[in-house]
Structure formats: structure tokens, C-alpha cells
């Protein structure tokens, strides 16, 4: 059975695995974005706090994904929980770092002007600083998403959802007639999903970033 025949005979299962893969990455990115931006907002005004936040999330990213999931299995069990926890933690660094860099890069004169017209600190953050810091924050989200697309495949080790199951099954059955097809289908599926997510982020950027800021 060649690769195209394999895709035709397994398309329903492939679509299900692709949906599960995209869903878990999307959900983890939402959580990681909320946590990462919050940490950035809380720490960007302090040099040591910002460095601590960046160092902590950098340290998490150095833990091998297989080891991270393996350590989580005895605590939360198999399946979705270790996958969600691991992916969320791995997605934090680019978002936290870019949130801090973006917020620190806002022109102080604009903040002073907002203060001069009577804006509160929260209003300045929401209406002035966050919109100006949004481009680097969005870049951090894009980088995190691309990372998690690949890392999510390792979740199959803990019976997690997604295209990683195809890759692991193919590797486990090397030598059988469909082993290579399974690995190739899982790998190409992840690449296609990563490209689709990135295209969506490009569209979001065009819709949410004013042309003057993009330039």
C-alpha cells in the first residue's frame, strides 16, 4: 500500500487525530497566553522580577519533553492531564519574554501623556501599553504555537491525543507494511497544522495591529 492509498483508507482516523492535535494545542495556547501575559504585566516594571520570570520559564523549557510527561504521569495519570500541563508550561517562555520586552519598549512619553490626561494605571495599561506591546506578544504566541505543535506529538507516550499516536505506532512497528506511512502521515499532518495556525496568526496580526505599528 503506497502513501496515497494509506491516506485514502485511513482518512477518517487521520482527521480525528488531526482535530485532537489541533484542539489540545489551541486550548493549551489559550491558557499559556493568559498566564504568560499576566506574568509579563506583573513583572515588566521590575528588572529583577522580569529576569526571574524569564529565568523560570527558560528553566522549564530545558526539561526534555519526554521526561516532563514521564514525571507527570505518576501525579496526574495518563491521557489528557499530563499533556495539557506539559504543553502549557512549555508554551510560557516566548509569551512571557515577549510580553516583558513589548511592555518595556513602549515609549515613556506616551505613557506620560496618558497620565497627564488623567488615565489610571489600569487604563494606561489596557488602552496604551498593551496595544503597543501587542505585536511582540503576538510573535511570542506564534513561536509558542509552533513549538507546541511538535512537542504535542510526544504526548502519545502518555496516551495523549493527537497525531503523535500515528508516529509512535509507526516507530513501534518498523518493518511492517504501513509503519513508514504512519510516521509520514503523522509528521506531515503536524507540519500542515503548524502552517495553518501560523496563517491564522498572520491574519489576526493584520486585523489587530494598526498599519502604522506594523510598519
Automatic annotation (TrEMBL):
<protein>
    <submittedName>
        <fullName>ABC transporter permease</fullName>
    </submittedName>
</protein>
<feature type="domain" description="ABC transmembrane type-1">
    <location>
        <begin position="18"/>
        <end position="201"/>
    </location>
</feature>
<keyword id="KW-0472">Membrane</keyword>
<keyword id="KW-0812">Transmembrane</keyword>
<dbReference type="InterPro" id="IPR051204">
    <property type="entry name" value="ABC_transp_perm/SBD"/>
</dbReference>
<feature type="transmembrane region" description="Helical">
    <location>
        <begin position="51"/>
        <end position="73"/>
    </location>
</feature>
<keyword id="KW-0813">Transport</keyword>
<dbReference type="InterPro" id="IPR000515">
    <property type="entry name" value="MetI-like"/>
</dbReference>
<keyword id="KW-1133">Transmembrane helix</keyword>
<feature type="transmembrane region" description="Helical">
    <location>
        <begin position="183"/>
        <end position="204"/>
    </location>
</feature>
<comment type="similarity">
    <text>Belongs to the binding-protein-dependent transport system permease family.</text>
</comment>
<feature type="transmembrane region" description="Helical">
    <location>
        <begin position="24"/>
        <end position="44"/>
    </location>
</feature>
<feature type="transmembrane region" description="Helical">
    <location>
        <begin position="148"/>
        <end position="171"/>
    </location>
</feature>
<dbReference type="Pfam" id="PF00528">
    <property type="entry name" value="BPD_transp_1"/>
</dbReference>
<dbReference type="InterPro" id="IPR035906">
    <property type="entry name" value="MetI-like_sf"/>
</dbReference>
Amino acid at each position: 500500500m503506497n502513501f496515497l492509498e494509506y491516506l485514502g483508507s485511513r482518512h477518517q482516523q487521520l482527521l480525528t487525530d488531526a482535530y485532537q492535535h489541533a484542539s489540545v494545542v489551541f486550548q493549551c495556547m489559550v491558557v499559556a497566553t493568559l498566564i504568560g501575559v499576566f506574568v509579563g504585566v506583573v513583572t515588566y516594571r521590575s528588572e529583577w522580577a522580569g529576569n526571574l520570570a524569564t529565568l523560570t520559564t527558560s528553566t522549564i523549557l530545558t526539561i526534555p519533553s519526554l521526561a516532563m510527561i514521564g514525571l507527570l504521569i505518576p501525579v496526574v495519570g495518563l491521557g489528557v492531564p499530563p499533556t495539557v500541563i506539559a504543553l502549557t508550561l512549555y508554551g510560557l517562555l516566548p509569551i512571557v519574554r515577549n510580553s516583558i520586552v513589548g511592555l518595556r519598549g513602549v515609549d515613556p512619553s506616551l505613557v506620560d501623556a496618558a497620565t497627564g490626561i488623567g488615565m489610571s494605571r489600569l487604563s494606561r495599561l489596557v488602552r496604551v501599553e498593551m496595544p503597543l506591546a501587542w505585536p511582540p506578544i503576538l510573535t511570542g504566541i506564534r513561536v509558542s504555537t509552533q513549538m507546541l505543535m511538535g512537542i504535542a506529538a510526544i504526548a502519545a507516550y502518555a496516551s495523549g491525543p493527537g497525531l503523535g499516536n500515528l508516529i509512535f505506532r509507526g516507530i513501534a512497528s518498523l518493518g511492517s507494511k504501513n509503519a513508514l506511512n504512519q510516521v509520514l502521515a503523522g509528521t506531515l499532518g503536524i507540519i500542515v497544522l503548524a502552517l495553518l495556525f501560523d496563517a491564522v496568526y498572520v491574519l489576526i496580526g493584520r486585523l489587530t495591529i494598526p498599519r502604522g505599528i506594523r510598519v
